[in-house]
Specification:
Blueprint lengths: L3 E3 L15 E4 L4 E5 L1 H9 L11 H9 L5 H5 L3 H8 L2 H15 L8 H8 L4 E2 L4 H6 L4 E2 L2 E7 L5 H11 L12 E6 L6 H10 L4 H6 L1 E5 L3 H17 L2 E7 L3 H6 L6 H22 L2 E6 L1 E3 L9 E3 L2 H7 L2 E7 L4 E8 L7 E7 L2 E4 L1
Parallel strand pairs: 6-10, 6-13, 7-8, 7-9, 9-10
Antiparallel strand pairs: 1-3, 2-3, 4-5, 11-12, 13-14, 14-15, 15-16
Length: 356
Amino acid sequence: MSGRRRSRPAGTADAAEPPMEATMDYASGEYLEDTSQAAAAELEEFELEDLEGVGRVTAQKLRQAGYYTIKDIAFASAHELAAILGSEERALGIIRAAQRALNMGKLFMTAKEYYEERKRIAYISTGVKALDDLLEGGIETRAITELIGEFGAGKTQLCHQLAVMVQLPPERGGLSARALYIDTEGTFRPERVVSMARYRGLDPERALENIIYARAYNSDHQMLLVDEARKLVEEQNVKLVLVDSLIAHFRAEYPGRENLAARQQKLNKHIMQLARLAAVYDVAVVVTNQVLAAPDVFFGNPLKPAGGNVVAHGCTYRIWLRKGKEGKRIARIIDSPKHAEKETVFTITDEGVVDA
């Protein structure tokens, strides 16, 4: 299957002008007309059995293990699939077949092509103009956004509001979609959603119906819920996955330095789960993170995000929330591949999270 159609080689006597959406195949000197939308539609109709090396029995095994689509296979590791199929070599062959189908046989692209692809990324408004301006549009799909802060900083309030905002139509900052909320600390409150939805002009009952809720009782359960989420995302039109909080269970279950390595390995696997979910299914992932006090810091802020480098490297955008004066909250971008390090102010009211 190919997502590019060859047009007449440049430089021939009666060569036509290249199509407006064309890019150059530098190996052959031919223009390639972009038919990626048609290819994407064709890919949606692909079944696992259509992959080379995948029969009915193998496809059944893969689906039982949570691999439902070509995308799931293409982004999997050979080690993961080998545990299901019994052979790493066979797993690698199936993954490569899925990647060829997914990328239309093309392994590389120019930076301009990638730039054009990133223009299709969607944004979810936070409902706060100052925060949206800080993030240059809002919460980004295909990325993990981390909200860091002490208790009472507004992390959970912002998660509640995002679960409402994603339901709005695009012209109002939403994606006309549903949210999946994984609650690890028992802090989700439907009553808060009701007041926020009413303020945003949504029917509260309908807003609650559009939030799929799950309580995670330990780290293994939390990871299982993310695995199961892959099926829900496509079936239920989910465009936002919230994990509040990311690290609570990991910290409780793996205390002390002697358990640090095991905890970080497991946490890293969980973050990679979320990153794959965001990239493969074009959803926004938002996680909250706790802070801890560094006893060796005598000057400046002694607090630092929990999770260490594993969380720092795994999350795309990191936003530190803290309490300000007169009930205000301050949001600061502390790590981002595209934003400058800057901050803004917002407040929390009965209606939700609003501009200060």
